[in-house]
Amino acid sequence: MPVPCDKCNEWVELNDTRESPLKKGRMLCRNCFSDEYEVKNKIDEIESIQYMLDNNDPEVKGNRLGWKSNIKQLRSEMSSLGYDPEEYLR
């Protein structure tokens, strides 16, 4: 049974849809799911780095600017995929 992707509105078979990793309840085609899965991984990585920075983790000592640069790069990659980092990061 064909259904529209909740993001791009492309019609796909129901069995070919996946639940959005960012917004529960939204069903996505494979391409949109792939993009959102990649963004979800970037969000998780940003949150992990920020946690280490906030807690002065030994791994980030001596190179805080480098880690902050990694966060900036990940946010830029999210933007290039069409997602606003401010919407998904706390």
Query: Which class do the helix and strand fractions yield?
Result: mainly alpha
Mean pLDDT: 93
Radius of gyration from the alpha-carbon trace, in angstroms: 16 Å
Number of helices: 3
Helical fraction: 40-55%
Question: Which H/E pattern describes the elements?
Answer: EEEEHHH
Distance between the termini: 38 Å
Structure description:
There is one protein chain. It is built from 3 helices and 4 strands, in the order E-E-E-E-H-H-H. The chain is mostly helical and 90 residues long. The strands form 2 sheets. The chain has a two-stranded antiparallel ribbon with strand order 1-2. It has a two-stranded antiparallel sheet with strand order 3-4. Strand 1 and strand 2 (11-13) form a beta hairpin. Helix 1 packs antiparallel against helix 2 (64-80). The mean pLDDT is 93.
Essential attributes:
mainly alpha; 11% strand; elongated; 90 residues; 4 strands; two-stranded antiparallel ribbon
How would you sum up this structure in a few lines?
Helices cover 51% and strands 11% of the residues. It is mostly helical. It is elongated and about 55 Å long.
Which secondary structure elements does this structure contain, and how are they paired or packed?
Elements: E1 2-4, E2 11-13, E3 18-19, E4 27-28, H1 30-54, H2 64-80, H3 85-88
Antiparallel strand pairs: 1-2, 3-4
